[in-house]
Amino acid sequence: MNKFFWNLTSIFCTLFILTFEFQYSIIPEIYLWINPFFESLVQFSGMYLTGFSVSFDSTISSDSEGLYVHVFNLVLLSLILAFLLKIFFKEKEVNLRFYLLIILAYYLSLQLLIYGFDKVFKAQFFFPEPNTLFTPLKDLSKDILYWSTMGMSRGYSMFLGGAEILVAVLLWFSKTRLIASILGVGIMLNVVAVNFGFDISVKVYSLFLLMGFLLILSPYFKYLFSVLTLESDFQKPNTEPDFLGKHESKKWIIKSFFVLLIIIEGLFPYLKTGNFNDDIFPRPKFHGAYSIGENELGLKRLFIHRHGYLIFQNEEDEFQDFQLELDTINQEIKLVDYRINEKFTLNYLHKANTIKGLQGNIFQKSINLKLKKINPSEYAINNIGFSWVAE
C-alpha cells in the first residue's frame, strides 16, 4: 500500500508539473504541447462528470474552473496508471518515491529561485503605479492592497526573496535538504495563508508547492520526532535515488547541469533587461500622475501607466482606462477604448518629460485639459523614512 501511494503521488505530481501553465525564459514550456489533449479531457469531464454547461471554459489556468476539473482528472488518471504499474510489475514492484523526491527538490528549487529573484529585484512586489496610489483605500481589492503594501518596502521584499533563494540553494544538497524542507514548509504556509486571506489567484498552485515540501519532508518525520522528543535513535533516513550506482562523476555532471539551468532561468530576465531594482528602473515617457485643471467633464487626475495605459480619474473617484499609443513625431496620443473597440486621437503639449495639456475629441466631446505633473516627492509614502524611536 505504501508503494502504491508513492506511485500514485509521483504520477500525479509529474503530470501536474508538466501541465501547469508557467512561463519560463529558457526552459521549454511543455504544457503548450500537451495541454490541448488535457483540455479536451477537461471539456469532457466538465460537461459529463461535473455538470458544467457546454460553454464551460476548459482552459487550464491558475484557479480557473478548468484547473479544478483538470486536478480531478489527474487524480483519476494517476489512479489508473498506478494500478497498471501494480498489475504489470507484480514480480518486481516499482516504487517511484525516490525519483519523486529528487524531482520535487529541483522543481521547488526552480520555483523558489524564480520567485526569490522576482522579490529581490522588485519584479513581483513592485512599487505601486500612480493610479493605485491615488485610489481611495476603500476601493482597492484585497489582493491589490496586499501587493501594493509589500511593494512599498524594498527591504522587506529583499528579505522575503532572500529567504526563498536560500531555501532554493539548500535544496540542491542532500545534507541540507532537511533544513531546506523545514524552512520551505514555513515559507509556503505563509504564502498559502496570504493567497487565501487576500484572495490572490494562485491558491491551487501554492497548495501544490506546499504539498511538495511536505512530501520531501515526509521521510524525515520519524527522525524529527526522535530528535524533538530526545529519543536515542537519531538515524537519518536515506532519500537519494541509486539509479547511477557508484558513478559519482556522472551524478556530479547531471546535478551541475540542472543547478546551472535553474540559476540561468532565474536570472535570465534580469540579465536581459538590466533591471536589478525596479524601484529605480526608468519608466516610459510621460509616466506618472497629473492633476487636471478645471474642466466641464469633472476630471481631476490623469495617469500614464507603465504598461501603456492612460487613465482618467473623476471627482467621484471613478476610473476609466484606455490603451495608449504615443506618437512623439506628431505630438499625438492615440487612445483605444478596448471595451467598445473605439479609437480617439488627442494632441498634447509637453515640456521636457511632462505633458502640459491635451486637446481633441473623445466620445463626441471636445476637451482642452491643462495638466500639472504631481511630483513623486509629494507622495506621503515617499517621505516616510525609518526611525528607531517612536515619537
Features:
Lipocalin, 3 domains, 11 helices, 47% helix, 391 residues, 8-stranded antiparallel barrel, alpha+beta, elongated
Explain what the structure shows.
This protein has an 8-stranded antiparallel β-barrel. It has 3 domains: 1-92, no CATH class; 96-281, no CATH class; 288-378, Lipocalin (Beta Barrel), CATH 2.40.128. The mean pLDDT is 89. The protein is elongated, with a radius of gyration of 26 Å. The chain has 391 residues and is α+β, with helices and mostly antiparallel strands. Strand 7 (354-362) and strand 8 (365-373) form a beta hairpin. It is built from 11 helices and 8 strands. It starts with a helix and ends in an 18-residue tail after the last strand.
Please indicate the percent range of residues in DSSP E strands (runs of 2 or more).
Answer: 15-25%
How would you write the strand order of the largest sheet? 1-2-3-4-5-6-7-8
Helix tally equals 11
Give the uncertain stretches in residue-range form: none
Let me know the average pLDDT. Answer: 89
Shape: elongated
The radius of gyration computed from the alpha-carbon positions, rounded to a whole number of angstroms, is: 26 Å
The end-to-end span amounts to 63 Å
The structural domain count equals: 3
What's the number of extended β-strand segments? 8
Helicity range of the residues? 40-55%
Structural class of the secondary structure composition? alpha+beta
Q: Summarize the helix and strand pattern as letters.
A: HHHHHHHHHHHEEEEEEEE
State the major sheet: 8 strands, antiparallel, barrel
